[in-house]
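Q: A reviewer asked whether we had any structural model of the full assembly, not just the individual parts. We don't, so I'm hoping you can provide one. Inputs are below.
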Amino acid sequence: MIRGALSRFRQGLKKTRTGLVDGMRGMFGNRVRLDQQTLDRIEELLISADMGVQSAVAITRNIEKRLKQEGGEATLEAVLAVIRHDVLEILTTAKPKVRPLRWDDEPAGAKGKRKKQGRADAASAPEPAPGGPRVIFVVGVNGTGKTTTIAKLAYLYKSRGQSVLLAAGDTFRAAAVEQLAVWAERVGVPCVHQGPGADPAAVVFDALSAAEARGTDVVIVDTAGRLHTKTNLMDELGKVARVIRRKTGRDPETLLIVDANTGQNGLAQARVFAETVPVDALVLTKLDGTAKGGIVVAIAETLGLPVRYVGMGETVQDLAPFAPDLFTDALFAAWTDAEAATEAE
Amino acid sequence: MFQDLTRRLDQAMKKLAGSERLTEDNIKEALREVRMALLEADVNYAVAKKLVSSIGEKALGREVLGSLTPAQQVVKIVNDELTAILGGHAAELNLPRGKDIATVMVMGLQGSGKTTFCGKLALRLKKEGRSPMLVAADIYRPAAIDQLHVIGDSIGVPVHSDRERTNAAQIVKLGHRRARDNKCDVLIVDTAGRLHIDDELMQELQDIARTVPMDEKLLVLDAMTGQEAVNIATVFAARLDFDGAVLTKLDGDARGGAALSVLEVTGRPVKLCGVGEKLEDLEVFHPERMAGRIIGMGDVLTLIEQAEEKMDLGEAELLAGRFAEGHFTLEDFQRQIRQMKKMGPLKGVLGMLPGMNAGVLDKAKVDDRQLGQVEAIINSMTRDERRRPDIINGSRRKRIARGSGTNVSQVNKLLKQYRDMRRMMKQINAAGGLQEFGRRVLGG
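A: Here is a predicted structure for the entire assembly that you could use as a starting point for your response.
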């Protein structure tokens, strides 16, 4: 299973990989000389992967240092090694510069009020069942692939022997409920939904009640896509998250779906979503094209949000755990014959 | 998060103050900033490079105009250059009326917003007095057909679909026939998307276009698309020779540099843009408005022009002087409001400022009526009251509230705001002027 996922991951990144490395080889040959033009070109290549200007500038600076150490010239491999090292470091160890919102982080002024309300809620609401279902809350802007990702997640958990229930929280877009229902049927899991235009918080409440009654292991909540600039829609999302918290006694595991085609706006998206709901990790979708998905590097560097899964195809099996080293390799590592051989296996 | 270009350039060109001419040396740093700003806006790196070099050529040797700082001068050149590229291509949809059925094919990657756009276009055409029919040629995505039916029903436009057939071109052909039978005059074809550009998809789209010749082949592109936009546009141009692009999700805060890339690389214009979730939210693309958005400077030039045109400079100076002296009465406040109103709706004025966009404005909940209310309250005061607001007692407040159609608490609120403002001004003056005040506030 894991092996299969990894090979799909490699396969999905193949186009990306050849594009960047070939690009570099075509530009520099096998030796890279230190001059402003070279550095500009490297920077451009990094930017062309949507990695963001800030990350690109930082990495280019490190390459400049390296080239100086090497006496103004280095092999292409050495340069790629610097890039690989830097990106990997960002993806695996970068500390969040902006701490995404957690429920414990109420602003100082609101703290007292919130606490009081929390007590009142605790008194009136029944204690959530200990254990309870694991709730996965899926959010993102329009058209990133939330519903498809949910189908893939459902398949993943089901194939691990867990019972799954889907909550059709996208009550806004035409036929979104039908789309989720079709996937639920294909995967073979139940789907709780109401009519179009229903209150998403109510749908989610129903789904959680159903899951508790059935002893379901995992509930995956779909939400309507929304641009992060729509304040009222973001407020609505916060409300759904609060309903889940109230019902289960803890924050949902929140996944932000990011389209690999997304440019620098991905950063603004991630920031606002993380300020609205407690985002745990990203899922990078549509990575099997020529899109490079470099925006996750910028997001990891700026917000410290890790990537958990990568979506690569259109069938329910096409979801793989994110492997920072593989992703980085695929983005920048030299395309050696040895690697090509492993790929052929 | 992004600094607007003017501020960045100011920083980069500080050394330049006093220079009389833009030279190769002194604009180097500035051009680097321009390049970064373009890249941050998702303008393709090759396009950005080309633009920067042509901007450099234009800027070189220019005299620094007395009224502009060197940075503003460069920004103006950037703005002119972008507007020239974008503005030269403004284009309308080509849907001939004489022909029995005009045809539109809508294509793009998954999640770019094709189906929603089809609905928006159908509604727009219907409002223009045409009778469109939608065809569901996306036979792959679950519930894509349902989605188009729901949209069609909601705007009263017929939808042709076929759940049995697996040949998209065949479905479109039958749809075309049905449109003729139903006396429809525009056929809008919603095609399948893919995760990326693949041969199979291109083949299917080509088959459709061959079976039913299309008057308009529109590529739908998400405004948030990054560097990949160029790849997408290039392949679609080569394989399908699309006529124009549609930029969706422009109501967000994406800079939309992708639009510039598409224009530069394929020469195809952006014709329409999606600006909201409702089916009415479709607009004709205004290329000239994109320039400011891409470089994140807002439409400052227009704002300055408007200010110069409509504000009475003498009056503005007088007000500033009174402000500095701490003699700021409600009469001055009234004048200030009148000046502001001359500039047009507040939201429009604020929208032209750098860093402002629909999202920020929605958040701030800007409301012109509030300004109107404030003005009404002040207008309902006697001249004496405006000059010496301290004389306004309870019965005067009641009279003012009645006269302005507000209530006493609103009058109180305004008076409190005025008192706060006056107190602040006194503090500023006591602290040794505005600069000193700022230093104390920020430093402390």
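A: Points you may want to mention in the reply: Chain B has three domains: 3-86, 102-295, 304-442. Residues 251 and 275 of chain B are 5 Å apart (CA to CA).
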